[in-house]
Amino acid sequence: MSQRVAAMENGFKKDFQSSKNSKNIVNGFSQANGIVITVALPNAPIREKWGKGVEFMLSCIAYSVGFGNIWKFPYTALENGGGAFLIPYLVVLFVIGRPIYYLEMVMGQFCSSGCVKIYDLAPAMRGIGVGQSIAMFVVMTYYTPVLAITLRYLFASFSTELPWSKCDPSWSRCIDSDNLEYRNFSDPANQNLNVSAELYFTKAIIHRAPLAEGIGTPDLDLVLCLFLSWLVVAIILIKGIRSTGKAAYFLALFPYVIIMILFVHTCSLEGAGKGIKFFLTPKWDQLFTAKVWMEAVTQCFFSLSICFGGIIAYSSFNNFTNNVYRDAMIISWLDTFTSVIVGCIVFGVLGNLATVTHKDSIQDVVRQGTGLTFMAYPDAIAKFEYFPQLFSVLFFMMLFIVGIGSNLGVITSIITAIRDRCPQLENWKVASAISVIGFALSAIYMAPGGLDLLDVFDTYGAKYVTLTLALFELITFAWIYGVDRICRDIYFMLNIETSVFWRICWAIVTPVVVCVILVGSFVEYKPVDVPLAYNVIGWVVYGVAVIQLPIWAIYAICTQKRSGFVEKVIGAFQPAQSWGPENEHTRELYNAANDKSKELDDEESERSSSLCKLVHRRVFN
Question: What is d(CA 185, CA 500) in angstroms, rounded to the nearest whole number?
Fold first, then answer.
């Protein structure tokens, strides 16, 4: 066994040094003394790369830090034990979030392919990438409408008086949001009253109506804001990944400037300490419930944006030797830090709101999802004694910027999947077409029943599809392709030995936990509170995405050039000839090293036929 390991290490070290001695030729250029020199290679890669390594990291930060951190994390933490939720969340981040994030970065960078073409490693599983692209398309159609509403509030924040601070004469049973007078809410006369910020959102902005009455006609003002949102996205995407990288300096960094300003101001508010304490105080009895851990896993997935395809797409534009291990660690911890800080801001403001309105419990002023962002927070801002317009502008500007950054990752994943299949298509044409189609489909969410429709597609087209395909993605990477082979690829690419921790997480912990969460989510399934027909539409969307798995598996088997059904099946689950590093020179070095390890694998297989030894070899060799 020791001879086998030594032989493998010597083979990989020799080939790795050979690739190093070629002056980073793997990326189509050499580096000497800090000067980049273009190398004219036959078959040199035509895939564009990030201008600088930091642009990749900043783009991933902008992609991962989004709406999930600002409105979903605080509410989820509050509903699942407050500070006690942070314990399972950090554990889940450590054993699931970071391993998957690192794995997707490694795989995307190694093969320089998006979420569909990456399955050249096992063509029968290509349906995973196609299904993820469908899910990303669904997310794209409803993500930008939320940006449009945010932009509408941003424009309204420049008014001399915040428009949601006063009641409109047509609104019944309304209280001005800027009214600080004490009201006894146990008095029947004061019950069932609504603050003007809530009615402004439901009546003046989205004109909300139940889906039972039909979707309705899109609001013109929101459609114009939607157009502007899509225009910003298209302008950034139209020149490709380099323009995305340049935009990332602003999209990733500027929100933190605003976050720090808002955090300092929040801490100065009366009652803010009460709200932050309410947010962070652990409710230890909930720590031992399965629901809290399930919510922690779900939050981790949607906060880091893993298993959507965006991380793989961004990583595919990296130089072959970029240190993605460092990037994955920085981004995953920064994402968690952002969630906690934003949670303190939100609940500090809610603590102030509860104090100035003489509410006994912060729970009375908490709203979920869009309600937290577009009702509770504006209501609190309207009560600020100094510069409410300024802090409203800062808040909605931050929300718009992080939303743009996340949406760029979503759409880049779709563009990459299309251009991997049809590389002759120019980037600006694909980006323009997606923007036009996206705008047309997104307009439906600007109708009175649009937010209920958004809940339907978010539940079935994003949550359930992502968790289902995430399980198959992890099984494909860890067991069909193999953890042992992934570790050899990492060593060849980065000259980094993979520790036992990553191997166990990739092979056992992560797939098992995701499987449990997926089964649990179906067992506890509750239909979205909309007419039955819309739930049926949601399940159809889920079915369309998931059925890609058997369709592409059958296609891969049928198109194998081997003879015999069994041989075709085996071939469909083995890497295609096109699998490997993008550059031909590097691929030759890789294939040579891989052939050596395969010979040793075959010898080892003959000596160890038991299942336990085979599993051990698959995970730890």
Answer: 58
